[in-house]
Specification:
Layout lengths: L3 E9 L5 H9 L17 E7 L2 E7 L9 H16 L2 E7 L6 H13 L5 E6 L6 H14 L4 E4 L8 H11 L17 H16 L8 E10 L5 E9 L2 H8 L4 H18 L3 E9 L7 H6 L10
Parallel strand pairs: 1-3, 1-4, 4-5, 5-6, 8-9
Antiparallel strand pairs: 2-3, 7-8
């Protein structure tokens, strides 16, 4: 049996559908999916099997114009993920077309692609007419020499199997990198923190989600098979703490319940989840917070 294995970087603007595609490929909810942009911070890897090939996905933060230290670290992580990959898949949204952000990514690809195969995945194709898709495909392939173009709907699953099959055939020959039943290489503590952060992001529709982070402070395995999980939500200001707690603690109760249920389902056992909110005005400038998110603090310089 000839086995293949390698890393695949999904890159694109925030909200292009990278997390949705990853979850569809892997068949489990590993990377958080929300309708707000810039929700993926860590380079989360999902592992999928395609025949005798093992596909290891790097779900990079969306590429955008960075303004703050955290933004710069996220963008550096995205390009770092692409530079480490065997195959790069650039995702764009069909209905948004070639934005200024897409142009910037195309320029960056020219610098890092080298001789690696770079594929184009045009997502959300159900939102535009066929002639628009054809024109968009032609223009993008004139701007960059993509080895293949895929028309997909990550949400509905259309075209995803074809893309996964091509990835399986294109990866280099070699032994598998992970045990076959392993879906993510992120520590369970980080996956749990991401789940809670997703619930907060969905619940709080203001700018606040980018002013908070979640850490799993303690994980205790109990004799009855359940797990006790303590998490801390760090916010930048006292006013933010009140927003996260909500009226009479309603918001944090709802977030805790939703996160606990999803984590229990994910692990297949009972979870006791306890959340605390702490104010740390400078958490975005603390190296420890960055390493908890899988980012390099030094990348935020500049």
């Amino acid at each position: 049996m000839t086995t293949r294995a390698g890393f695949i970087a999904l890159i694109g603007e925030p909200n292009a559908g990278k997390s949705t595609l990853l979850n569809h490929m892997v068949g489990a909810k590993v990377s958080i999916v929300t309708h707000k942009v810039q929700t993926t911070r860590a380079r989360i890897r999902g592992v999928a099997m395609e025949g005798d090939s093992q596909l290891v996905f790097i779900d990079t933060p969306g590429l955008f114009k960075p303004r703050r230290r955290l933004d710069r670290a996220m963008v550096a992580a995205a390009w770092g993920g692409a530079a480490d990959a065997d195959i790069i898949v650039m995702m764009i949204e069909a209905h948004r077309g070639i934005t200024e952000g897409v142009e910037r990514i195309l320029d960056g690809l020219g610098e890092i692609a080298g001789d690696r195969p770079v594929a184009l995945a045009i997502n959300k194709i159900d939102r535009v007419k066929a002639e628009v898709l054809l024109s968009l495909t032609e223009t993008l392939n004139e701007k960059f020499n993509f080895v293949k173009t895929f028309m997909i709907s990550a949400e509905k699953g259309y075209g995803v199997d074809t893309l996964r099959q091509w990835l399986g055939e294109t990866l280099p020959e070699g032994p598998w990198l992970y045990p076959e039943d392993q879906i993510a290489d992120l520590p369970m503590r980080m996956i749990a923190a991401e789940m809670t952060r997703e619930k907060l992001t969905l619940r709080l529709h203001q700018e606040l989600p980018y002013q908070l982070t979640v850490e799993t402070e303690n994980w205790e395995e109990r004799k009855d098979g359940s797990a006790k999980v303590d998490q801390v939500i760090y916010v930048s200001r006292d006013g933010h703490k009140g927003i996260v707690l909500g009226h009479k603690g309603e918001t944090i109760k709802a977030v805790s319940k939703a996160s606990r249920e999803e984590l229990s389902e994910f692990l297949g056992r009972k979870v006791h989840l306890f959340l605390q909110v702490r104010v740390r005005s400078n958490w975005q400038d603390e190296a420890e917070r960055y390493s908890e998110m899988g980012l390099d603090f030094k990348d935020g310089n500049g």
